[in-house]
Amino acid sequence: MTWEQLQLQHAKLQNECKKYEKYTKQTYQIEQQLIEIEKEIAQYDQQLEHVREIYEKLETRSILNYLRDFTGRREELLQENIEKIAQIELKLVEANLMKKDLQNDLEDTLQKKKEIDVEKTEEELQQIRANMQGWLMMHAPDVSDKLTQLMDEEMLAKRLLVEIDEAIIAGIQAEDCLRAAAAKIRDADAYSTWDLVGGGFIATALKHSALDESNSAVHEAQIALQRFKN
């Protein structure tokens, strides 16, 4: 092989090893994130069960609730609990959506990792390194150590450039998702205002549609930020 051929083969094999290393780190990160999201889901489930129990107690015809009816406090407490239930349910839905997306990301990362035969790649890389060292000792013995060092530095720089480009793309995607989420939230706010001033059935329907779209957009922004972080 010529020196150029050896370099190209070395670059290809080293790049595969670095990708395997990256996928291994990402796998660990996503697994940790899934552990955390599972904890959040369990907490929301407990909170939801607690507030529903309170709501059911408020619904029963007890002496305490008769007194609350008399003072007008019971309806207020019921409304407060309904709002709490709605808030926790929204958080629970979001957490489950995040869990599903993280599971998809984990599956995708594991598949990419599986496609790399790292043991074979490392063996071939060691052989290429030995061939390159032999070529240098034969053709440029005085500068072989320096050339090997420079070659390693060049490979690292190229890999970093790839990583930076990937991060920039992920960052732009996250920024686009945040802008879209902000726009959807503004739409939902506008429809809510219209509904309050008497927009009628159409305004109410549009408001709920806009709220659903804004929730979806916020979720997309959250998972995009998570991927940018990873």
What does this structure look like?
This protein has 230 residues and is mainly α. Helix content is 93%, strand content 0%. The chain contains 6 helices and no strands. It has helices spanning 3-59, 63-71, 73-114, 118-139, 144-196, 200-229. Helix 1 runs antiparallel to helix 3. The longest helix has 57 residues, at 3-59. It is elongated and about 95 Å long. The model is unreliable at 196-203 (pLDDT under 50).
Feature tags:
0% strand, elongated, mainly alpha, single chain
Q: What is the 3D shape?
A: elongated
Kindly state the percentage of residues in helix: over 70%
Strand coverage percent:
under 5%
State the end-to-end distance.
39 Å
Mean pLDDT: 82
Number of helices: 6
Radius of gyration: 29 Å
SS content category: mainly alpha
Give a concise summary.
With 230 residues, the chain is an all-alpha fold.
Topology of helices and strands:
Elements: H1 3-59, H2 63-71, H3 73-114, H4 118-139, H5 144-196, H6 200-229
Helix pairs in contact: 1-3, 1-4, 3-6, 5-6
